[in-house]
Design a protein that fits this description.
- The chain is of the alpha/beta class.
- It has 2 domains: 208 residues, Isopropylmalate Dehydrogenase (3-Layer(aba) Sandwich), CATH 3.40.718.10; 140 residues, Isopropylmalate Dehydrogenase (3-Layer(aba) Sandwich).
- 40% of the residues lie in helices and 22% in strands.
- Strands 2-1-3-12-11-4-5-10-8-9 form a 10-stranded mixed beta sheet, sandwiched between helices.
- A hairpin with a 2-residue loop joins strand 6 and strand 7.
- The longest helix is centred in the N-terminal third of the chain and has 19 residues.
- The two termini are 15 Å apart.
- Bound molecules: nicotinamide-adenine-dinucleotide.
């Protein structure tokens, strides 16, 4: 069980708002599991977002890129805040995230959406729909498709009267994201549902045919296909039918947000961005929550679960990842709550108390 002598370098990018507090709470959990499983995590903290703008004038300093590239994984908090809202495009804190994803060549975005039994009340869906359990992994292509395709507009008398964007994918782009999805599904229930619009779009027909070809390399994984309009309905009607959803950039953008809403708790949801090497970027799906930044009540669980994803996908410490995920389930089952998931005047824990309780339950 112990992985003696294993040392991993992790870049920490706390960012802004609640970012530093949730990263701090998470590093304590990482320290505890690394002790237990006999590996060592050496972390280096670097600047990103508004914090970087304030210190060195840009949202993604070269030094940060250097540190991240020299690491085995990157764990990020969140960026942004009203202080930087009026800065021009390239200088905005969010450019730091887009920039680091680009620098690290991350093309696959993984967003789990899990409805925890003890948090069923937080979901907007009815109990009978959730009864069979919901544990979905949405895998979204991150660097291609319509957000990066040819675009343009035509103007008459200074007024725009038409505009277009182009959805374009190449076979290698689809193959590599499909392989990520099949590999991830192997560590789950071995079911991939590829979502497209192949009844209308040529790019989706190519998507479907390419995914079918790649699936031949993964005979142990079941592949199904669904049109995106149906997938949007099925996520609400019967989310339990899904395990791993594989889809393009724009459909993934929309469906991963929809899936996250089924869980009803933004402070609980982690994410990972992966590329063609083991080096990945892990971050909660929520933002920097400036409204609660100084209250010490931010829920660190999304970041703690992001660290679990990091252990699983970048550091190959799967047992340690499962340990953290189970501790979070116990935390909720015992009845502990953070401010964002407490209901009816339930008592809630601070950020640090939350990580302390989770550490006790590891
Ligand atoms: P947000 O996710 O920061 O907050 C939305 C709501 O959820 C707020 O009420 C907040 O208090 C609450 N919330 C979020 N995370 C929480 C947590 N861990 N614990 C408890 N409550 C939590 O979204 P927003 O308010 O739209 O954006 C705030 C800033 O964050 C903006 O500057 C935005 O650009 C930025 N942002 C950054 C990222 C990122 O870093 N990846 C993502 C989204 C938004």
């Amino acid at each position: 069980m112990k992985n003696e002598n294993k040392v991993y370098n992790v870049a920490l990018l706390p960012g802004d708002g609640i970012g530093p507090a949730i990263i701090n709470a998470t590093t304590k959990v990482i320290d505890k599991v690394s002790n237990e499983y006999g590996f060592k995590v050496i972390s280096k903290t670097a600047l990103i977002g508004g914090a970087a703008i304030d210190k060195v004038g840009v949202p993604l300093p070269d030094e940060t890129v250097k540190i991240c590239k020299a690491s085995d994984a990157v764990l990020m908090g969140a960026v942004g805040g009203t202080k930087w809202d009026n800065l021009a495009g390239e200088m905005r804190p969010e450019k730091g995230i887009l920039g680091i994803r680009h620098e690290l060549g991350l093309f696959a975005n993984l967003r789990p959406a899990t409805v925890y039994k003890s948090l069923k009340n937080a979901s907007p869906l009815k109990d009978y729909i959730l009864d069979g359990g919901v544990d979905i992994m949405v895998i979204r292509e991150l660097t291609g498709g319509i957000y990066f395709g040819k675009r343009g507009s035509q103007h008459t008398d200074g007024e725009c009267f038409s505009a277009y964007d182009t959805e374009e994918y190449s076979v290698p782009e689809i193959e590599r994201i499909a392989r990520v999805a099949f590999n991830v599904a192997r560590g789950r229930k071995k079911k991939v549902c590829s979502v497209d619009k192949a009844n209308v779009l040529d790019s989706s027909m190519l998507w479907r045919n390419t995914v079918i070809k790649v699936s031949k390399e993964f005979q142990d994984v079941d592949l199904s296909h669904m049109y995106v309009d149906n997938a949007a309905m099925q996520l609400i009607r019967n989310p339990g039918q899904f395990d791993t959803i594989l889809t393009n950039n724009i459909f993934g953008d929309i469906l991963s947000d929809e899936a996250s809403q089924i869980t009803g708790s933004i402070g609980m949801l982690p994410s990972a961005s992966l590329g063609s090497t083991k080096l990945g970027l892990y971050e909660p799906i929520h933002g920097s929550a400036p409204d609660i930044a100084h209250l010490k009540i931010a829920n660190p669980i999304a970041t703690i679960l992001s660290a679990a994803m990091m252990l699983r996908y970048s550091l190959n410490e799967v047992e340690a990842a499962v340990k953290i995920e189970n501790a979070v389930i116990k935390f909720l089952d015992v009845g502990y709550r953070t401010a964002d998931i407490a209901v009816n005047n339930q008592k809630y824990l601070t950020t640090d108390e939350t990580s302390e309780r989770i550490i006790e339950l590891l």
